[in-house]
Amino acid sequence: MKDLESWLKERNITEVECLVSDITGIARGKITPVSKFVAEKGMRLPESVLLQTVTGDYVDDDIYYSLLDPADIDMLCRPDPAAIYPVPWALEPTAQVIHDCHDKRGNPIELSCRNQLKRVLALYAAQGWKPIVAPEMEFYLTKRCEDPDLPLQPPIGRSGRQETGRQSFSIDAANEFDPLFEDMYDWCEAQGLDIDTLIHEEGTAQMEINFRHGDPLELADQVFLFKRTLREAALKHDVAATFMAKPVTNEPGSAMHIHQSVVDVETGRSVFANDDGGMSQLFLHHIGGLQRYIPEALPLMAPNVNSFRRFLPDTSAPVNVEWGEENRTCGLRVPDSSAQNRRIENRLPGADANAYLAIAGSLLCGYLGMVHGLNPSAPVQGRAFERRNMRLPFTLEQALERMEHCSELQRHMGQRFVTGYVAVKRVENENYKRVISSWEREFLLLSV
Q: What is the pTM of this model?
């Protein structure tokens, strides 16, 4: 706490936003005066926050009380000194601090998504390995829309006009929103978020931000805060930013591609490369693990009903767990690189995924392949979009069923977490089913 106190004092901070990420990735917590934060050295929150759905509901009572104390007790949330950031858009000097969740005995709470990522990183550390990741975040800018029944529209840029058509990699189309992106970059720099390239993606007013490679926990924290930052920058400029997986009909979905590699802790050398620079057995086993277990871990990477709208054949999103070198039709792509920088790009996670859980799930799948010596299929040459290669669940319901019965996920993430996560997503799915869509009204109302 002394380092935290010094950081706060040097910057004349008056308020602290104490944050934890729930299962969805929503920032929950308390806003407190800096004096109270320093005195209490953390905060208390109901443990039930970790079983809250995106709609604000909770899981059924039988599951709720089997996973939580019947008295609905508080958990102890302790600030991570390495996860303190300024809030550059705040009117008063404000800091945001990411907290870790513990029970009253000081044990990490299994339902915490940040703790889950730490568990996976500990598995790698026990083998003398250190994973490295680099996320790529896609998102849409849209007009602000108060009526959720209305389709989203492209925003108006500096030219006073809406974007029309596909503008992949267009510099001028991206420059339409320069004032917004200048604030985004300034605010990210103020927070130390290590963002890199901005590009215009394939969709209308769809963009992508790349993060520089680094420690998985630090990068998950940064993605968590980046989503907040971008939304604030968009609101300042009277537009909206969305990380929904498929927010616009007939437009590409938004992904969170995860580049991942593994180095030896002692030597710093990539375990994905042999001495001659070729692909190592550990690299191939890592791919084998991703192929084997992603279909069971998919809800961690595609967590919502809307997530599965990305997985359509002949679109920019993969519908398989095939792998290939420089092949974007594969769910698992090996980019061209030096031997030391050899990595696998997992193209399946959506931008709507919780970064802690998507990264944890992706790394866990690769780890299981490495420790169990799983061999991958042959790499794909050419297109991999054919549905005969499809091994993934088609719907969220199917995906949750497979996740629920995956013994390796239960073993390494814990039965309590798997049960709680599946229960939260099933409640959200039931809420979705209660809403009648415009498609149903358009095509079924007067025809059936």
A: 0.96
